[in-house]
């Protein structure tokens, strides 16, 4: 059949894409329908077609799926953030687990998959410790903030995203009020005029520490009275006098401190009330979609906040990478650590180590950990975090995993009992995998954010002497289509 734009048709939704669109078929032609849920029968309108597939807009749910729920967020459909708010959380978890299983069998060629139950969240809301809110104006010229609509830069006014922390809204209100009062214009993409582009807010979930960073298209002086804004923001989240701040910058007890490690004190520490620790500006004068500018001007506090994952503490600056779901991150790394099964005698390589988050987690139980990461600033953070936690058994290399590892192996015959990899979506380079095979560690622990490339790499290693022993999916991003996976492979 020849489909034309605006044709209306009915389709049963049978699957879900990685980006969360419902997938259905009519006569072998595949449709992607946003906001449709597996099990729905829907009426949809053709938006765009290619040779064998097309995109259609959901017009009406004719027969709702058993797993369909009413989205909790009023902006769920317009906002580009969530894709699965119309699907019950239980079904999402099943969907994600199945996706991993299917990829491992279809692409990975595995017949028996030792899957353990998916790790979901008990409370899948307000899990994000970081949000970046774009600022703009509505058609009446009022300053607004919220989120970009899917695929566009139109701002959906929404200060209280249900994935973000409750502190976001009062902070945004405060900044908006200040801007109105001092006649400070939000940035306008079309004209490249206006000052305030985005506001980044981060919260340390275990310390209560808050960070605010205003991304400006110009000099800080243009904020007119930054000291007034700072005073208001600090007052908004001031600690009650006398309250002890567990994670107060620089004084935090850390994993390497014997006392703390022995008593696992961090776990038992009460979480202090939210309080403002760091306020800064990031200067970004470029015409770009990249949110943060490279130059940071500090307005208040030490320039960073501190947070813990398990017993390990991390210093987080406005530009640092840090996992956005700390509760699930801990479970993900805990699973990786469990799969690694360390006794204290092992030498471990952590490839694609970022700011060393997994490396430091492993260092608690290993003799020696080597981390490799391509971004030099991330390695600066990794080294600082190792020092902060008094780890002396970690060493970091800047460079590509597929270059550093072969070089170290050829030159220094480096050894590994266990190799952990956590590559970006495209998976591991084959040179990297070949070197792993040559080094012949007993175990490979593969942490993955894309189960298709994971399956490809598992197959590659499977053909070279490694077999899959354990698999577990972890849901780091409830209401989105993404899923993380941890796989343990052992040398046969
Ligand atoms: N394990 C870290 C980060 C994982 S994200 C954490 O959990 O925090 C993947 C990381 O791989 C990113 O930090 C990215 O910069 C890095 N990376 C991408 N390509 C790489 C390559 N070829 N070699 C080494 N690191 C790479």
UniProtKB/TrEMBL annotation:
InterPro entries: MeTrfase_TrmA_AS, MeTrfase_TrmA_CS, NA-bd_OB-fold, SAM-dependent_MTases_sf, TRAM_dom, U5_MeTrfase_fam. GO terms for molecular function: methyltransferase activity. Its EC number is 2.1.1.190. GO terms for biological process: methylation. Pfam families: TRAM (PF01938), tRNA_U5-meth_tr (PF05958). S-adenosyl-L-methionine binds at residues 323, 352, 373, 422. Keywords: Methyltransferase, S-adenosyl-L-methionine, Transferase. The active site is at residue 449. The keyword Nucleus does not apply. The keyword Methyltransferase applies. Residues 2-60 form the TRAM domain. Belongs to the class I-like SAM-binding methyltransferase superfamily. RNA M5U methyltransferase family. PANTHER family: RNA M5U METHYLTRANSFERASE (PTHR11061), TRNA (URACIL(54)-C(5))-METHYLTRANSFERASE (PTHR11061:SF30). This is 23S rRNA (Uracil(1939)-C(5))-methyltransferase RlmD. It comes from Ventrimonas faecis.
């Amino acid at each position: 059949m020849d489909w034309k734009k605006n044709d209306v048709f009915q389709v049963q939704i049978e699957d879900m894409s990685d980006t969360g669109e419902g997938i259905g078929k009519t006569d072998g032609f595949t449709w992607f329908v946003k906001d449709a849920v597996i099990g729905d029968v829907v009426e949809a309108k053709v938006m765009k077609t290619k040779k064998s597939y097309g995109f259609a807009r959901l017009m009406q749910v004719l027969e709702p799926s058993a797993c369909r729920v009413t989205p909790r967020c009023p902006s769920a459909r317009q906002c580009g953030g969530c894709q699965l708010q119309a699907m019950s959380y239980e079904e999402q978890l099943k969907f994600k687990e199945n996706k991993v299983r299917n990829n491992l069998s279809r692409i990975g060629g595995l017949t028996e998959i030792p899957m353990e139950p998916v790790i979901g969240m008990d409370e899948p809301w307000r899990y994000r410790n970081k949000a970046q809110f774009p600022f703009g104006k509505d058609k009446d010229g009022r300053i607004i903030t919220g989120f970009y609509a899917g695929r566009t830069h139109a701002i959906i006014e929404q200060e209280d995203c249900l994935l973000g922390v409750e502190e976001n809204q009062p902070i945004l209100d405060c900044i908006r009020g200040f801007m109105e009062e001092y006649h400070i214009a939000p940035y306008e993409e079309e004209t490249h005029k206006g000052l305030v582009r985005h506001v980044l807010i981060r919260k340390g979930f275990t310390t209560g520490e808050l960070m605010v960073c205003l991304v400006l298209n110009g000099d800080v002086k243009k904020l007119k009275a930054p000291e007034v804004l700072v005073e208001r923001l600090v007052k908004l989240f001031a600690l009650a006098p006398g309250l002890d701040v567990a994670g107060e910058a620089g004084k935090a007890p850390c994993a390497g401190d014997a006392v703390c490690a022995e008593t696992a004190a961090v776990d038992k520490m009460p979480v202090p009330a939210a309080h403002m620790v760091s306020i800064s500006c990031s200067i970004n004068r470029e015409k770009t979609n990249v949110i943060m500018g490279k130059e940071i001007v500090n307005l208040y506090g030490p320039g960073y906040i501190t947070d813990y994952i398990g017993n390990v503490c991390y210093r987080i600056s406005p530009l640092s990478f840090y996992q956005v779901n700390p509760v699930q991150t801990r479970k993900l790394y805990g699973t990786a650590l469990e799969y690694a099964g360390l006794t204290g005698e092992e030498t471990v390589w952590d490839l694609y180590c970022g700011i060393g988050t997994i490396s430091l987690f492993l260092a608690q139980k290993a003799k020696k950990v080597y981390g490799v990461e391509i971004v030099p600033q991330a390695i600066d953070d990794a080294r600082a975090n190792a020092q902060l936690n008094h780890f002396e058994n970690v060493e970091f290399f800047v460079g590509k995993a597929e270059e550093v590892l072969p070089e170290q192996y050829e030159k220094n015959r480096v050894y590994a009992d266990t190799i952990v990899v956590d590559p970006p979506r495209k998976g591991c380079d084959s040179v990297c995998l070949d070197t792993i095979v040559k080094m012949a560690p007993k175990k490979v622990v593969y942490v993955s954010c894309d189960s298709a490339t994971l399956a490809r790499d598992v197959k590659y290693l499977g053909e070279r002497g490694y077999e899959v022993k354990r698999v577990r999916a972890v849901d780091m991003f409830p209401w989105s289509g993404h899923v993380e996976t941890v796989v343990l492979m052992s040398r046969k």
